[in-house]
């Protein structure tokens, strides 16, 4: 791609609409082209401000429509010292206006690719966090020093806690646990000598759980399970449904 073509990619770059190889080449270009770097900063700031002002569900075809319009609209290269002025300057002003209009339209409907990129990044981060938690759960269950305790739960359900002191973590497993009432959630607790410490919330839609308890075991000698308002509580607000001592 020649230098003249690179100058036209500021809008597509801000919209995260470049292919990976084009994006890498354009980012190298930004290091040596202050004019393009400034334009990218200005367009990105505009997109951010407009995005904060609206929150509307976009039509599914809007992103493709906007990107198609941008790709079809010719942008003049940025003005550099010694370059001719006049017609080229007027053309650049027009293309910037059209590009800004496209950006504003995209943002006003919540369909800017930058927003979708952020959503995708957050989804990837959530997936990586889930993978890390699953790996840590597996390491606790398979730990050589894992100690297992079990108890009965309401309506014939069963609960099992697995503790690994070497990993300073505990896992809690349930089978057949009834779903909590609307607006309620099951909450786990570490028992620190009679003082309950929050250890995570259970998924109210799942009856068979296997989850890593939040926080370290430390000096906890057992755990508890209570029914709490949705979102959980800082300390138990109901009598425990179960209390379990950790096996030693």
UniProtKB/TrEMBL annotation:
Cellular compartment(s): Cell membrane; Membrane
Domain Anti-sigma K factor RskA C-terminal: 99-240
Pfam families, sorted: RskA_C, zf-HC2
Main localization, broad class: membrane
Membrane topology annotation: Single-pass membrane protein
Chain segments annotated as transmembrane: 94-115
Record domain Putative zinc-finger: where: 9-37
Keywords tagged on the record: Cell membrane, Membrane, Transcription, Transcription regulation, Transmembrane, Transmembrane helix
Gene3D superfamilies per the UniProt record, alphabetical: Anti-sigma factor, zinc-finger domain
Annotated protein name in UniProt: Regulator of SigK
Source organism of the structure: Streptomyces maoxianensis
Organism taxonomic ancestry: Bacteria, Bacillati, Actinomycetota, Actinomycetes, Kitasatosporales
């Amino acid at each position: 791609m020649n230098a003249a073509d690179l100058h036209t990619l500021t809008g597509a770059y801000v919209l995260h609409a470049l292919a990976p190889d084009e994006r890498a080449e354009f980012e190298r270009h930004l290091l040596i082209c202050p004019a393009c770097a400034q334009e990218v900063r200005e367009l990105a700031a505009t997109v951010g401000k407009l995005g904060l002002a609206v929150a509307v569900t976009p039509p599914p075809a809007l992103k493709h429509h906007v990107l198609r319009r941008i790709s079809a609209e010719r942008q003049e290269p940025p003005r550099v010292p010694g370059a001719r002025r006049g017609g080229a300057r007027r053309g650049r002003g027009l293309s910037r206006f059209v590009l800004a209009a496209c950006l504003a339209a995209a943002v006003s409907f919540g369909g800017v690719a930058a927003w979708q990129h952020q959503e995708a990044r957050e989804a990837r981060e959530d997936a990586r966090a889930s993978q890390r938690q699953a790996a840590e759960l597996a390491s606790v269950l398979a730990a050589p020093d894992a100690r297992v305790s079990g108890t009965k739960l309401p309506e014939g359900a069963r609960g099992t806690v697995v503790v690994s002191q070497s990993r300073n973590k505990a896992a809690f497993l349930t089978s057949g646990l009834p779903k909590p009432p609307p607006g309620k959630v099951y909450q786990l607790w570490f028992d620190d000598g009679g003082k309950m410490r929050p250890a995570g919330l259970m998924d109210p839609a799942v009856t068979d759980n296997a989850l890593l308890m939040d926080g370290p075991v430390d000096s906890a000698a057992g755990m508890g399970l209570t029914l709490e308002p949705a979102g959980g509580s800082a300390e138990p607000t109901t009598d425990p449904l179960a209390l379990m001592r950790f096996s030693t």
